[in-house]
Amino acid sequence: MRYNLWLAIHELCVNIIQHAYEGAQGEFTVRMQLLDAPWRVEMTTHDRGMHRFVRETYRTPDLEDPPINGLGMFLIEQLVDQIEYEWEDSGSEWRLVKLLPLAVPSGNASMQSSTAMKG
Question: How many domains does the chain have?
Answer without folding.
Answer: 1
